[in-house]
Amino acid sequence: ATTRYEVESAPAECSGVVASNHSGYSGSGFCDTPNAVSSAVQFTVNMPVAGTATLGIRYANGTTANRPADVSVNGSVVQPGFGFEGTGAWNAWATKSLPVQLNAGTNTVRLAATTAGGLANIDYLDVTTDDGNSTIMQ
Ligand code: GCU
């Protein structure tokens, strides 16, 4: 199953402005952070059980320069310098995927820019769990 967390919807946090000046976003906008190291977005993700989940981060980067981010789960960096490469235009959206381990209950997923460009524009986080084919062994 996939749960979508819009960056403009609390408890998600956008350390910038929620903007809507480039089309194609989901929900009511996207997060445009300052062009600076450590610009960040943070999502709160709820899981019924602990396990592996795939993060799908939708973004746009209208420059030709990568805008990498450290990806942290519950305060620990799980993927340093995860790339958010240019998408060709600010209204051209792409999704980057990353498997992570999540706890049961509430988790934080944070992206923090590692270069002076700051983050790409961030639209949402999808969290997909593989719960479609579980088998109870007995
Ligand atoms: C432009 C663009 C913004 C983007 C910014 C950036 O100003 O309109 O949406 O966030 O560039 O470089 O980050």
Automatic annotation (TrEMBL):
Q: Which GO terms describe its biological process?
A: pectin catabolic process
For the CBM6 domain, which residue ranges apply? 3-128
GO molecular-function terms, A-Z: arabinogalactan endo-1,4-beta-galactosidase activity; carbohydrate binding; glucosidase activity
Q: Does the keyword rRNA-binding apply?
A: no
Claim: Cytoplasm is one of the keywords in the record: no
* Highest taxon of source: Bacteria
* Keywords of this entry: Glycosidase, Hydrolase, Signal
- Give the similarity note: Belongs to the glycosyl hydrolase 53 family.
Report what the protein is called.
Answer: Arabinogalactan endo-beta-1,4-galactanase
Species of the source: Nonomuraea polychroma
Which residues of the parent protein does this chain contain? 31 to 168 of 500
